[in-house]
């Protein structure tokens, strides 16, 4: 298993535009092998004394924090998908993102613990 994680400052007024972009992008990731994609819109993101999500992305007034992740079967699948998405016509046609991509933080992670409720 492999994880990609993202923290993104999105202007509150661009929530719908972000959701529309995320919908096609996330579906493309599923089509390219992702097991799960979750997009979370800020509901309770407190200001920290030293650091917090807002400080991490230099959020500006009126921006909300999006926390998202993609769960992959393995790193090779994730790497191949990240390469392939650049060939997607929607990706090529995107001239403007609904957020400042320079302030998005992201990373890839190898799970070290994975607990789930039995079904």
Write the layout of secondary structure elements.
Elements: E1 2-11, H1 15-31, E2 36-41, H2 53-56, E3 63-72, H3 75-84, H4 89-93, E4 105-109
Description:
The protein is α+β, with helices and mostly antiparallel strands. It has one domain: Alpha-Beta Plaits (2-Layer Sandwich). Helix content is 30%, strand content 26%. It contains 4 helices and 4 strands. The protein has helices spanning 15-31, 53-56, 75-84, 89-93; strands at 2-11, 36-41, 63-72, 105-109. It has a 4-stranded antiparallel β-sheet. The two termini are 20 Å apart.
Distance between the termini: 20 Å
Provide the helix percentage. Answer: 25-40%
Q: In total, how many domains does the architecture comprise?
A: 1
How many alpha or pi helices? 4
* CATH fold name: Alpha-Beta Plaits
Order of helices and strands: EHEHEHHE
Low-pLDDT stretches are none
How would a crystallographer describe the biggest sheet? 4 strands, antiparallel
Radius of gyration, CA atoms, in whole angstroms: 15 Å
Please report which band the strand proportion falls in: under 5%, 5-15%, 15-25%, 25-35%, 35-45% or over 45%. Answer: 25-35%
Q: What is the name of the CATH architecture?
A: 2-Layer Sandwich
Any idea what the shape is? globular
The spatial strand order of the largest sheet comes to 2-3-1-4
User: Can you give the mean pLDDT?
Assistant: 95
Helix/strand-derived category reads: alpha+beta
């Amino acid at each position: 298993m492999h994880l990609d994680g993202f923290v993104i400052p999105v202007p509150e007024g661009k929530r719908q535009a972000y959701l529309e972009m995320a919908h096609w992008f996330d579906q493309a990731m599923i089509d390219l092998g992702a097991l799960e994609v979750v997009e979370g819109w800020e509901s309770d993101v407190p200001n920290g004394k030293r650091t917090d999500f807002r400080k991490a992305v230099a959020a500006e007034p009126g921006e909300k924090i999006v926390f998202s992740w993609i769960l992959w079967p393995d790193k090779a699948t994730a790497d191949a998908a990240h390469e392939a998405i650049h060939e997607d016509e929607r990706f090529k046609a995107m001239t403007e993102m609904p957020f400042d991509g320079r302030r998005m933080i992201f990373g890839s992670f190898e799970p070290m613990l994975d607990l789930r409720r039995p079904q």
